[in-house]
UniProtKB/TrEMBL annotation:
Keyword line: Coiled coil, Endonuclease, Hydrolase, Metal-binding, Nuclease
Disordered: region residues: 296-353
Annotated transmembrane regions: none
Organism, scientific name: Austropuccinia psidii MF-1
Pfam family name, one: RNase_H
EC number assigned by the record: 3.1.26.4
GO BP term, pick one: DNA replication, removal of RNA primer
UniProt enzyme class: hydrolase
Superkingdom to which the source organism belongs: Eukaryota
Classification of source organism: Eukaryota, Fungi, Dikarya, Basidiomycota, Pucciniomycotina
Protein name: ribonuclease H
Segments of skewed composition (Basic and acidic residues): 297-307, 334-346
RNase H type-1 domain mapped to chain residues: 167-310
Coiled-coil features, chain-numbered ranges: 145-172
Reaction(s) catalysed (UniProt annotation): Endonucleolytic cleavage to 5'-phosphomonoester
Length: 353
């Protein structure tokens, strides 16, 4: 079954959809769709080895074969997405995006006539995240992280000692970011013991991960550091060591060493570069602080991040969607068909009285 399905996708679907971005448009869809459905039904029967009398709803459910139309939509969507995430100097990017967002004045192009044009336009707004395959120079400085590799108990003890032994010139900033299902995402950075707080309500069109929310929290810490640094300079005061404490090790690792390209680069790469610049002026340290251990600064940051997540009136931070997330969303919306209640109702066997 698997080999047959692979052959159908590789040969039948590829030949059927050759150049479909040009000829499968809103004006031709009504004529072509019945042909696609008939071809799909035959292909599904071939995959299953079923007879002609087998109801098509079983074939849709068990063949695990996407419809030809869904395959076309996914391929066109991914093609546009590839162009949308090219560098700004790419000759096709500007034209494709312009035709995607703007209506044709007189002579519509193939982009204007795409059957899923509106959905593609929505998925490329805001512009998807661009990931640089070579984000940093190989000889750049890698920041160290305190407590990395320590047990939770050891790290908790180390952070509590850091808080209790802090002098007046030192600055401790606790950060947090989280996603509350059905409410929203938020991030916060809190300076101890000054009581300075920055929070953001995170918005985007594609679901955000906790990892990205944590990176926003560390980014907010940079704002606090710069704000306090300039304030002390104006007063003629010196700035001592700065400690950024976060309970997410993955976010800390990315900020410390951003050499490997991955999702969230628009967050961790500038943050890392800012930290490198700040470290030339003042000592800056990244520290892992275990969460939910009763450390006051961490608990306060968690509380403020929750408030920001559930309060849309909080100042907002927009996270551009990644190409991988958009692709996954496209696949989820175009999965092989399953039973629908109205289809399967007639197949249900009634129990004997």
């Amino acid at each position: 079954m698997k080999d047959t399905r692979t052959l159908i996708k590789a040969i039948l679907y590829t030949r059927t959809l050759f150049g479909s971005i040009l000829w499968l448009t809103t004006s031709t869809l009504s004529k072509i769709k019945p042909i696609f459905e008939k071809t799909y039904n035959k292909a599904a029967r071939m995959v299953m080895g079923s007879l002609k009398s087998t109801p098509i709803i079983f074939l849709k459910r068990d063949s695990k074969l996407k419809s030809i139309l869904a395959t076309h939509i996914i391929r066109v969507h991914n093609m546009i997405l590839r162009l949308a995430t090219k560098e700004e100097t790419h000759p096709a990017k500007t034209r494709v995006l312009r035709e995607l967002y703007e209506e044709a004045s007189s002579y519509p192009s193939s982009i204007h006539k795409l059957i899923n044009r509106e959905r593609i336009a929505n998925n490329t707004r805001p512009e998807p995240e661009l990931i640089n395959p070579f984000p940093t120079k190989p000889w750049r400085k890698i920041l160290s992280i305190k407590n990395m590799g320590a047990t939770k108990e050891e790290a908790e003890k180390s952070v509590k000692q850091l808080v209790s032994n802090r002098n007046s010139q030192e600055l401790l900033i606790f950060t947090d970011g989280l996603d509350i299902p059905d409410k929203g995402k938020g991030a916060a950075a809190i300076a101890v013991p000054l009581g300075l707080i920055i929070t953001r309500h995170i918005t985007n069109t594609i679901p955000t991960t906790n990892f990205e929310a944590e990176l926003v929290g560390i980014k907010l810490a940079i704002k606090l550091i710069r704000r306090e640094l300039y304030a002390r300079r104006d007063k003629g005061e010196k700035m001592g060591e700065v400690h950024i404490l976060c309970d997410n090790q993955a976010a800390l690792r990315k900020v410390a060493d951003p050499t490997n390209p991955s999702t969230g680069q628009h967050l961790y790469l500038p943050t890392s570069n800012h930290l490198i610049s700040l470290s030339q002026l003042i000592p800056v340290h990244l520290t892992w602080c275990p969460g939910h251990t009763g450390i006051e600064g961490n608990e306060k940051a968690d509380s403020e991040a929750k408030k920001a997540a559930s309060t849309a009136s909080t100042q907002r931070h927009m996270i551009p969607p990644s190409k991988a997330k958009i692709k996954q969303q496209i696949l989820n919306k175009n999965k092989p068909e399953h039973f629908r209640p109205e289809e399967s109702k007639r197949l249900q066997v009634k129990s004997c009285p």
